[in-house]
Amino acid sequence: MPMITTRDGVAIFFKDWGPREAQPIMFHHGWPLSSDDWDAQMLFFLSQGYRVIAHDRRGHGRSAQVSGGHDMDHYAADAAAVVEHLDLREAVHIGHSTGGGEVARYVARHGEPQGRVAKAVLVSAVPPLMLKTESHPSGLPLEVFDGLRRALADNRAQFFLDLPAGPFYGFNRPNAKVSQGVVQNWWRQSMAGSAQAHYEGIKAFSETDQSDDLKAITVPTLVLHGEDDQIVPIDASGRLSVKLLKHGMLKTYPGYPHGMLTTHADVINPDLLAFIKG
Fold it and tell me: Does this model's pTM top 0.90?
């Protein structure tokens, strides 16, 4: 398997498909999944002539199940290690959910300072901050995230069935067309990772204030968000993020769920392509 080793000794799995001379697009997956969650996008952009790259975050998928570094700083540094190993330039970075936070921190602290980034996309992403605080009253209460930690610790296997079968893909909505294959694939990816990484990752994606990351980004950045996102509510995330970006654009989708990259790939993929080409 293609792997790199980070400066702190962590083995990170990655995929690298397509012509080496083509413009690279790097995908950053959400919690608690793996690079496999980008199958629909990687195949689509590969067919469009792009070079497509995705990696498994530390503790997720096929990357090493290490005991430390489950925070946004290490997530971004690990992504940077993959980029530098492959010497990606003029890259477009696309992140979903927690991966959107990873993209924001990577672009702000690594990608732009190194001159490697052309554009960025935040899809159903967690920035600027998911947790409700005095200065961020539209966030979610800490009890919500404590509940996620409790469910994971009590019965991770069942929790990782209930989440995709319910709010993640909007399968709990009336008249929703449920795909058991999608639910099982979510479970397969998640159970391949480390329970510790997933547990500590909840703090990383919920309590990391990325307002300064967003303010530091100067490349064109597209923010995509479903208006029926039950995991990362749009009012506390997408609609606030675009106000902090220097060159941000927001596109919302009525009725679309958190996992819209899977359930509505036929709509989202062309929108991503239009932004990249524009």
Answer: yes
